[in-house]
Write the structure tokens for this entry.
Amino acid sequence: MKGIVFREFLDLVEEKFGLEMVDEIITKSDLESGGAYTSIGTYSFSEMLQLLQHLSAKTNISIDNLLLIYGEHLFAVLGNSYPGLLETYADPIEMLASIEDHIHIEVRKIYPDAELPTFIVEERTENSLVMIYKSSRAMHHFGLGLMNKTFEYFNSSATIVLEKIKEDGTEVKFIINKN
Amino acid sequence: MSQEKIDILQRALKREKAARKAAEKILEEKSGELYFSSQKIKELLAEKSSQLQGIFENIVDAYVVMEINGDILKFNDSATKLFGYDIDKESINAMDLIHKEDYEHAFSSFSELQANGFYKDYETRIFTKYGKVKWVHVNGSIVFDKDKKPVAAQGIVRDITEIKNLELQKEKLVLKLEKSNDELHQYAHIVSHDLKSPLRSIDALVNWLKEDNLEKFDEASIQNISLIETTLEKMEQLISDVLNYSSVAADNSNIIDINTNTLVKELLNIIYIPNHIEIKICNTLPTIKGDKTKLQQVFQNLISNAIKFSDKEKGLIEIDFKNIDDFYQFSIKDNGIGVEKRYHERIFKIFHSVNNSKDSSGIGLSIVKKIVDLYGGEIWLTSEPNVGTTFFFTLKKQPNGRS
């Protein structure tokens, strides 16, 4: 997993819960990196999983909700880093529908070894979108956070329902209806 | 500050230091990689530039680079030689080179070149500096800059004047050949007509001679007269056959769908079949594209031959058919006298009859072969003397020039 994901995650934890919390979850986890992350490095996903689990236990917030908040946070970071990408879209549905065919292709240009989830468009109308999320990471709520902020960015909002196709969350249907 | 807080901060600091070191290490590796690949790219560029320079200088064809407005930017040596201009000393535009009568074609081709980015097999006439007209063949393409804006056009120009001249010559020759073929055909008609009429006169005269002298002639003379009559008949047949042979030419005007099954059955009604001979069609024959008269000639000749050379008490002739890839293969099998191996090639040549019988001029099989050749097919036979013969012939499903 790319280092920027860890950096941004720990920055957010520090901002919301303080440096003590960062120290606590790092110390409690068994991390190969020792918790020293640089944005340009690559680290094992199991490190992120441990950090999330300890944060969830400590704060009593579910992992899904932590991922949701994190997704919302990361949207702003990405928006600042890559403003050109957002500007190519006129509409949130259009942007979400092109995750697979455009955004992920752009991501791979910068991070050729990035391990990305797939978002397959099942149905699309002007105001609605049904997509199937597939990833062994089961980080669907992270995606949900990014999507929420996408609609906000375009001064719009949507009702997004998640239906798990597989119990472990590695395959989830996103039903998105613009409000 | 509490000790605990200090510990936390120290740990955070330690992590940040470690992260920075890791980052620096990664960056160092990346710079190394970048340096290495930029060296590689430089080398590759130098290599490619030298290759291009080599092509530009060594290419046998003329190579021309021009601006989009047609102003010539570059000529290689061959181009300088072909067009006669030294572009270092004089500026020229592509339109100065093109033959006025080919302007329209040049404009439309150039628009196509701009639209598609390339143009292949463009042929035009050009003027050299010394006013000579030459035919050239051009493959052109547009040169784009990094923003994909067209900046120039380049083309490989080949002098095809010689080839064009040869083509024109060939066309003339073909026309001439067609004409002389026609003349020859006419000639054959006239000659055969002219030859036949004295034959008929001789026939009539001999007849009168016989009738007038029936009582005066002895038996030997009467027999000789009837031999004269037979010979006259054969002579007439020979002339007709020669005419037939010379009329077999590729003529595509009568190509239609022909049901060979019906064609053969109709033929069997016309041909005289002695009672002791049985003819079997073993397979339903196909419907093919062809000229009815020619196909009739093929079957008639082969079937008649099979009948003619039947010597058994019960004659059997079998007509069969097979579908083989691009060909129809027909066969006509008899249980007649057979053909010796040494004659297998010769019998298809004109005037080669193995049997010197009264009704065999030696032309039939050569007509068959000529027709089969026209259909892109082959003809051959297998035979055992005194047991029988099988003639095979193939016809191409898509005859030449008839797709």
Remarks:
- The first strand of chain A starts at residue 118 and ends at 124.
- The mean pLDDT of chain A is 91.
- The radius of gyration of chain A is 16 Å.
